[in-house]
Design goal:
The complex is a heterodimer of chains A (about 90) and B (about 100). Chain A is an alpha+beta fold and about 90 residues long. Chain A contains three helices and five strands. Chain A folds into two domains: about 40 residues; about 50 residues, IHF-like DNA-binding proteins (HU Protein, Chain A), CATH 4.10.520.10. In chain A, the strands form two sheets. In chain A, strands 1-2-5 form a three-stranded antiparallel β-sheet. In chain A, strands 3-4 form a two-stranded antiparallel ribbon. Classes of the chains: A alpha+beta (about 90), B alpha+beta (about 100).
């Protein structure tokens, strides 16, 4: 399923809404999650899961082709942990 | 409430602001978005949200694990798990935003 299909489904369920508003709604939900994470916040959606940011320490990496050492800077990566309800539903 | 953590209500506040729907309806619609994502995953579909990321489910085989504390072996049953792969765009955005914090 891609975003436009998700928008389609929600539009069908809510015929009183303009599709462009539903599109805006879906985009807002996801962009809000991204922007929260980019300011270091955690998003906890009970039942669905939680989005958080994990810190990766700086390390010395290697260029796999030449074998030379390269410094890899500290970085921050998005992380999703599925919620209990989602895990249960998947395993029914 | 912990101001370092967002919930459904913060997401629906954003919807109220951006789309101009009522608070109650926004809350219900945020829930619908999440429910449809779950439904697709349960059906074995991959959910791809451009510039956000991809949710997919995969089957894990049964294996023998160990309780790391006691060292006792235990069977880990076969199960389905959800994985989320952030898009390149999200990774860049999240990494940039957190540098220097």
């Amino acid at each position: 399923m891609i975003k436009s299909q998700l928008v389609q489904k929600i539009s069908e369920e809510n015929p009183h809404l303009f599709q462009r508003d539903v599109d805006r709604l879906v985009s807002t939900v996801f962009s809000e999650i991204t922007s929260a994470m980019s300011s270091g916040k955690r998003i906890e959606l009970r039942g669905f899961g939680a989005f958080s940011v994990k810190k990766r320490k700086p390390r010395i990496g290697r260029n796999p082709r030449t074998g030379s050492r390269v410094e890899v800077e500290e970085k921050f990566v998005p992380f999703f942990k599925p919620g209990k309800l989602l895990r249960e539903k998947l395993n029914k | 409430m912990n101001d370092n953590s967002l919930t459904r209500s913060d997401l629906s506040d954003a919807v109220v602001r951006e789309v101009g729907l009522s608070r109650q309806e926004s809350l219900e619609l945020v829930e619908e978005v999440l429910d449809y994502v779950i439904e697709a995953l349960v059906d074995g579909e991959t959910v791809k949200i451009s510039s956000f990321g991809t949710f997919s489910s995969r089957d894990k085989k049964e294996r023998t694990g160990r309780n790391p504390k006691t060292g006792v072996e235990a069977a880990i049953i076969a199960r389905r798990v959800v994985t989320f792969k952030p898009s390149q765009k999200m990774k860049e955005f999240v990494n940039k935003g957190n540098q220097g914090n």
